[in-house]
Known about the structure:
336 residues; mainly alpha; 54% helix; binds L-tryptophanamide
Amino acid sequence: MIDGKKTMLSGMQSTGIITLGNYLGALKNWVNLNEEEDIKCFYGIMDLHSITVRQEPANLRKSARTLLLLYIAAGLDPEKNCIFFQSHVPAHPQLAWILNCYTYMGEMNRMTQFKDKAAKHADNINTGLFTYPVLMAADILLYQADYVPVGKDQMQHLEITRDIANRFNGIYGDVFTIPEAYIGKSGARIMSLQDPTKKMSKSDENPNATISLLDDKDTIMRKFKKAVTDSDGFIAYSDDKPGIKNLIDIYCAVTSKSVDEALKESDGMGYGQLKEMVGEAVVAELVPLQERFEALSKDKEYIDKIIKENAEQASYYANKTLRKVMKKVGFTELPR
Length: 336
Ligand code: ATP
Ligand code: LTN
């Protein structure tokens, strides 16, 4: 709770351009949620998390700003919501350090994202990657978040956040709000277009596997055309047909239609026609977003102002919690 209002926080790492998976699984839900309820919302551009994997400085700078523009272009109003860069609020790594001292090695060892990423980046298994969930816990707890909308893959991190918060509250009294996961209506898990048994991921090396939010119309249609399906030749929504199921899931998430409606509309179609129908629905959703993105890219002054004001606002709330934590732990207050 902040100022008597329920609070929500979410974010994404700024690493490359986000995909249709990130959009349908996360960003679009945030926008829907935003319209529905009277909640104080914080959205982070989690650039400190990005460096758990080696980043080219110029690319990191560019992806972070691009992510901010995509948040706004997708419909998050930066005047109503606090949209900030994690690296602009030093309270995040400060609280993360403290929480590290209340987190056990065994707990971190169980994290599946760490295991996956460590396997993927075997040459750079750094301790930041290992303690990634503690920084994420700090992100959430600093804003006393009641709700955290995340995809299912982030549930384990949210559980550990709750464990750390409960442990800390158990020692020092009620310091942190215990956050709940908020799985949105269209919590679709979008799969790779080239291997529909794997999730669509922005770090996939095969560009045909993912739709980037900034892909143009022709690229989107081409990638759907190349999507891997099966050789049965009939449309059905089933786990045995992951390629077709994924296309239908994408269609439903983009159009807000039900699976039954999608099956009715695609009745009698061949795979080629289905791919075209899905591709066109995605284009219809992304082109207006891309137009807003283009317009925002030209307005540097406005964006700079948003960045500055929102960093100040985020810092205000984050520092309030940090001060409370530091006092509880027993750090000496700076004499006035
Ligand atoms: P990376 O490839 O860099 O690991 P990613 O594309 O897997 O990144 P994350 O940055 O880990 O994405 O996730 C950002 C948000 O998008 C999270 O809330 C996550 O649940 C959601 N998300 C990521 N991939 C998908 C997907 N394929 N379908 C649905 N939601 C997704
Ligand atoms: N780990 C998250 C990104 C993230 C996040 C957060 C999400 C970092 N800090 C706080 C929700 C709340 C991911 O989606 N990969």
